[in-house]
Amino acid sequence: MVRIELLKDVKGLGKKGDRISDVPSPKAEELIKAGKAKDLGFKK
Hints:
By secondary structure, this protein is α+β, with helices and mostly antiparallel strands.
């Protein structure tokens, strides 16, 4: 699981500026590559 901060509104996840933990790695990677999220590191 990865923690991310949303840089844009993402349907089903949240609004810009939201910090979300427990995002599955593949989904987080997809959002980061699309420029919609910033990686805040892995959750232990």
